[in-house]
Design a protein that fits this description.
Elements lengths: L1 H40 L4 H24 L2
Amino acid sequence: MSKEKQPIKEGLFSSAKKFTDAFFDGLKQNAINKALDQAKENKFPPDVIDAMERIEKERDTLTKLIQKYSK
């Protein structure tokens, strides 16, 4: 009988983990966007802003690749 309850608990915990991961990923993304916006507002040199945007795109690409191959 306890074996029947285990998948439900695991499903609940995995759902909670997905929610918290998404929440903190959103916070992280907002912080990154804010830093980029502030760099633009403070008139950082264009090459610095370009590098920041390029790093962000590379991070997104790497994240997608990791997700693709971790399945």
